[in-house]
Specification:
- This protein is α/β, with parallel strands linked by helices.
- It is built from 15 helices and eleven strands.
- The chain has an eleven-stranded mixed sheet, sandwiched between helices.
- The radius of gyration is 21 Å and the shape is globular.
- Bound molecules: glutamine.
């Protein structure tokens, strides 16, 4: 049996029917994952021993008649989430040697649901990037568009799932880091509404933008994972007290109908189809629009007039927050220490050696925009524009249920290209950062491939706590695998 090719739903069905055990499943996935470490390099670390012990425990529970939503399902976790007893480095030299002393809330939720933790996936250092090339441990290759970037920053998670080296994974999305790699690797990726999922125990990137979300092979699998990781958490004051529906029920009523999207209006934001949109990406999105119409949806042109300010606003807010969040890595409390008699010198040397170039660039930018004299000109102004961007989305959602747009302006590019061109990388985030600035939810769904075989994703964007609608529409638009 090709265990690693399975979806979560298929694996659960098989285990519940007694066709195979979690140990067999986990072993199969670990084998596939290990075999691709020298090529795809999706994982920073694999924990075969731990995973097999958890799988054996899951099998014991099932044999004793217990059932749980993800009992025995192996999952890959981005290397910026604390899993008790496992290393957690955020793919940074400065966190080398750090072992998580506790479980992040999402990990505790998955553990309670019976999931098995395979290992930790590669990422851009501290989630700063769109290519997974800023990882201290070396890049990850796109398993579908070989020789190309898998996207980032959750590129390891995307490559693991897209390359059938995991059934499903968790990523984090601060400015597109779940949706963009999902799009480049042909997956479903969800950026939940800000406050939907707890951030406790996640290595903070930009705290007002970060959300954890699932990366899966199907819409149904994403809904299953969202059921487990959603909800308010006393340990995260920004998580919201909003009931968690059963997301797998989102499409139940409309499923089987010839027009499952009847009565739904999809807004087409004209600014997301502007200059720089690759023609092949554009074609795939046009096809998705036509599918939506055939399935009964009404398409409606809408405008998000401040889209052009998304990149500068995002890169001011996010660098300001990252410069503050990364101040805690000082060689005293976590990971790497470059010892020195003078403590100030020790801070400096540890940070100089421990952080990579992109991290330093962002700390410098963030410190600059927060500095006295420039605070009003940059940080304060960006906060105001952020409000305007949020209002754009609110106004659009007064006219439609969801927005439909591309995820990225272009398909995955070859590894190494643009590596020394940060601005070029930043600009590629133009279609994803608005969602994080506004706080609303979005989903990346496979929409086919380019002639060269590179996956292209279509983005569905929903209002706050609009995840049910996202799943309903995504399920109807999902192409056969
Ligand atoms: N690519 C964006 C950046 O470099 C998004 C990162 C993220 O979502 N973590 O900041």
């Amino acid at each position: 049996m090709e265990f690693a090719k399975m979806t979560v739903t298929e694996a659960l069905r098989g285990m519940r029917a007694g066709a195979f055990t979690s140990v067999e499943l986990t072993q199969g996935v670990l084998q596939a994952a290990q075999a691709a470490q020298n090529t795809i390099h999706a994982y920073v670390t694999l924990d075969a021993e731990g995973a097999l012990a958890q799988a054996a425990e899951a099998d014991r529970m099932r044999a004793a008649g217990q059932e749980l939503p993800l009992l025995g399902v192996p999952i890959a976790v981005k290397d910026n989430m604390n899993v008790k007893g496992q290393p957690c480095t955020a793919s940074s030299h400065i966190l080398e040697g750090y072992v998580a002393p506790y479980d992040a809330t999402v990990i505790a939720q998955l553990r309670a649901a019976g999931a098995v933790f395979l290992g930790r996936t590669n990422m851009d250092e501290f989630a700063l990037g769109s290519t997974t090339q800023t990882s201290y441990f070396g890049p990850t290759e796109n398993p579908v568009a070989r020789g190309c970037i898998p996207g980032g920053s959750s590129g390891g998670s995307a490559a693991a799932v897209g390359g059938d080296l995991a059934l499903c994974a968790l990523g984090t999305d601060t400015g597109g880091s779940i949706r963009q790699p999902a799009s480049h690797c042909g997956l479903v990726g969800v950026k939940p509404t800000y406050g939907r999922v707890s951030r406790y125990g996640i290595v903070a990137c930009a705290s007002s933008l970060d959300q954890v979300g699932p990366m899966t092979k199907t819409v149904e699998d994403a809904a299953l994972l969202m059921n487990v990781i959603s909800g308010q958490d006393a340990m995260d004051a920004t998580s919201l007290d909003e009931p968690v529906p059963d997301y797998t029920q989102a499409w139940i009523e409309s499923e089987g109908s010839e027009k499952p999207l009847a009565g739904i209006t999809l807004g087409i934001p004209k600014e997301y189809f502007g200059e720089g949109l690759d023609p092949e990406v554009h074609t795939r999105i046009e096809e998705a629009k036509m599918r939506a119409e055939r399935l009964g949806a009404t398409l409606r042109p809408v405008s998000l007039p401040n889209t052009a300010y998304g990149i500068p606003t995002y890169y001011i807010c996010m660098t300001a927050e990252i410069s503050a969040n990364l101040a805690r890595f000082d060689g005293v409390r976590y990971g790497l220490r470059v010892p020195c008699d003078d403590v100030i010198e020790q801070y400096k040397r540890t940070r100089a050696e421990g952080f990579g170039a992109e991290v330093k660039r962002r700390i410098l930018l963030g410190t600059f925009v927060l500095s006295s004299g420039f605070y009003d000109a940059y940080y304060n102004r960006a906060q105001k524009v952020r409000t305007l961007i949020r209002r754009d989305f609110e106004a659009a959602f007064a006219q439609c249920d969801l927005l439909l747009a591309p995820v990225t302006p272009e398909p995955a590019w070859p590894l190494g290209v643009y590596q020394n061109d940060p601005i070029r990388n930043y600009l590629s985030d133009v279609l994803t950062v608005g969602v994080n600035l506004a706080g609303c939810c979005a989903l990346s769904l496979p929409a086919g491939k380019t002639a060269a075989g590179k996956p292209v994703g279509v983005q569905l964007i929903g209002p706050n706590f609009g995840e049910m609608m996202l799943f309903r529409v995504a399920k109807a638009l999902e192409l056969p695998r």
